[in-house]
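Name: S1/P1 Nuclease
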Amino acid sequence: MLAICSRTVYPKNLMPHLLSAVLLFILMLPDPAQGWGRTGHFITGEIAQRHLTPEAAAHVERILGETSLAVATVWMDQVRSQDAFRHTADWHWVTIPDGMRYEEAEHNPNGDVVEAFERQIAALKSGELSPEEERDAFRMVIHMIGDMHQPLHVGTGEDRGGNDVRVQWLGNRSNLHRVWDTDMIESWGLTTTQFTDALLILDEETIAAWKQGGPRDWAHESMVYRSDIYDLPENLELGWEYRNRNFHIVEKRLLQSGLRIAMVINEIYGS
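Structure predicted for S1/P1 Nuclease:
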């Protein structure tokens, strides 16, 4: 049973064909700091696509060509190990200790997800980028919004965003970061479209309320969930009980990041 936005969806007969099984295997491969896993980022991109203005959607097609917005959300993870983009490795996360705000925290000299996002947004708004530079900045921005909404990408500075917290997930070795970016989402066995359809049960008032603030506010929102995230059993064996108790947070953050991706794109390209 998948409880989403006060509605209940019962997935039935979700028997994936061979290609889906191969894709699921790939998605489950470890990646210690990728924000949402690929499926999570895909979901944020599909949510965003459904909330673009026609003019903004036309610009997205111009920028990305035949690549969908959903697929473009994972580009920043795909290139992070390439020499040309190694400098972006620290742009996926930010450290804000408990009781502090972003402005009070000690900042990484190589940049962080908040600082890099603000810089890339300014570059996009300048209108001075080449087509290639615009495409790269655009793909970084839509990815970083997702990262800021994955609560463990706003870390305390003590455990690498939960990567150092070794746990068992349904009897398999994992870590707390991976549980939040991938394991809980993948445990439902839903496709990106099925997940997005189930999540997009929102009223206009909620949508309007969530289209507020900026990256520093979104990072501070992620900090609110730390007590729930780190409420772990002594044996560190996590499964259905932990997922069902916390999945509303995953749902909310996926929705908020998707809506805010659309909001940012519409602000830059929608008028």
